[in-house]
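cron nightly-structures :: item 1 of 1
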Amino acid sequence: MRKFNILTLGLSAVAGLMMSGSVALAAGAGGQIVERDWSFSGPFGSFDKGALQRGFQVYREVCSGCHGLDYIAFRNLADLGYNEAEIKAIAAEYEVQDGPNEDGEMFARPGIPADRFPNPFPNENAARAGNGGAYPPDLSLIVKARPNGANYLYSLLVGYGEAPSDMTVPDGMHYNSAYSGHMIAMPQPIYGGDVSLAGEGDTSMEGLSADVVTFLAWTAEPEMETRKRTGIAAMAFLLVMCFVSYGSMRYVWSDVKK
């Protein structure tokens, strides 16, 4: 029993450290962070397929002109609920550089499901030249690149506004309450009503921002639902084995005199 209690205390301590670490990270985001209840949060969380498809549409119509998805292939869109024909049609809308051909030259062709999303710029210098010197980051892992990533990114998208009267906003910069220092080079990307959603959904600034954040949470961890299911199954198995082991120990030592 003593060993069992020690194990329980140890696991509790580890869980406590993990929780305190996540709180510390959330506090270090730097800015006014809005906390939302996301469908994918927690050990039993999952992605809302409708929100994923709406978020993908917001990305394509609002974000893809500057930001790439270097680590996502078109075929991964099957996780969002698209069928094979739809994925082929989406991929064909993009132009992908391929080659070299028989003449040793690179050439452009329509995308196929096996291709990754092409970056809107050929290189970093071109990206900076097209954005006033600022480099728009790839969005594949952006939710994992920031503490409290989903809430931070959502807060950033809805955090634009007028700067306080005692603050001067330099040319080419924009006030954002969630951004560290409150000055950001990226103009406000979403105002509300920017996208005519293919399905039902909230087209307000908050609604579109929440959908695209959900989509980017998926791009950062497409295997999240599988990982959670595996983890829950593993914990259930370990819990059962814990009781089986304890029962076996009681049976083996039941005839030993105290």
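cron nightly-structures :: done
Confidence is low (pLDDT under 50) at residues 1-29.
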